[in-house]
């Protein structure tokens, strides 16, 4: 069974890969590779995986990992900026790093910080580190994020990108059962056109998008 693309809603989807656990479809319009909805974990199963994560603000290695997004954001943001760490997880860390640089950060996570009051504000920066690959409805979620950015604001994303069908077949990233959406360079180019964003591919898994 095919499924319309959860990012752009195109019906132009086809098989991309299959392993022993799941199927992976690709969108002919935006190049998103995604797991069909009926193969997603339940919310309880998904949270049980996240509860095993041990990331926290005192972990120097985790901070070095996040600094690949934090540094280019610090270079671009006015101080103080108002920001939102979207999908902050059980151990928010990037928000702490940006607060240490003089910015004011709010937190949102559907499991660990489900504070809908954050959607009453506009932000100079919204971060989503290792989040986009978990989104069951990336089109709706990204549209909401862009809508809550000020003009000139930045959406900072960390997610590993699809390179080729051959590399995908042996990619460790698809073995995580909570990963259901896989973005390519072409997917971010489509997002730039769809939402009028200026897109910078900063690193292999770091993308900055500015709202004009």
Automatic annotation (TrEMBL):
Pfam families named among the record's database cross-references: Methyltransf_23
User: What is the protein name for this chain?
Assistant: 2-polyprenyl-3-methyl-5-hydroxy-6-metoxy-1,4-benz oquinol methylase
Q: Does the keyword Secreted apply?
A: no
Question: An example of a Gene Ontology BP annotation on this entry?
Answer: methylation
Q: Which GO terms describe its molecular function?
A: methyltransferase activity
Q: Which domain of life is it from?
A: Bacteria
Q: Which InterPro entries match?
A: SAM-dependent_MTases_sf (IPR029063)
Would I find Methyltransferase among this entry's keywords? yes
Q: Which UniProt keywords apply?
A: Methyltransferase, Transferase
> Which Gene3D superfamilies does the record cross-reference, listed alphabetically?
Vaccinia Virus protein VP39 (3.40.50.150)
């Amino acid at each position: 069974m095919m499924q319309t693309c959860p990012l752009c809603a195109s019906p132009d989807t086809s098989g991309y890969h299959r392993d022993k656990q799941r199927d992976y479809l690709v969108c002919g319009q935006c190049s998103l590779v995604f797991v069909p909805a009926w193969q997603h974990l339940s919310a309880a199963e998904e949270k049980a995986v996240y509860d095993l994560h041990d990331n926290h603000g005192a972990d120097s290695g985790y901070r070095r990992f996040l600094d690949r997004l934090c540094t280019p954001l610090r270079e671009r943001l006015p101080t103080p900026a108002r920001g939102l760490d979207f999908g902050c997880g059980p151990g928010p860390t990037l928000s702490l790093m940006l607060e240490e640089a003089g910015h004011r950060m709010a937190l949102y996570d559907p499991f660990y910080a489900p504070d809908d009051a954050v959607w009453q504000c506009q932000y100079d920066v919204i971060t989503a580190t290792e989040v986009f690959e978990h989104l069951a409805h990336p089109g709706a979620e990204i549209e909401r994020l862009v809508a809550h950015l000020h003009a000139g604001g930045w959406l900072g994303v960390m997610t590993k990108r699809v390179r080729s069908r051959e590399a995908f077949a042996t990619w460790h990233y698809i073995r995580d059962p909570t990963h259901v959406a896989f973005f390519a360079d072409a997917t971010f180019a489509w997002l730039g056109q769809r939402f009028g964003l200026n897109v910078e591919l900063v690193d292999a898994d770091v993308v900055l998008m500015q709202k004009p």
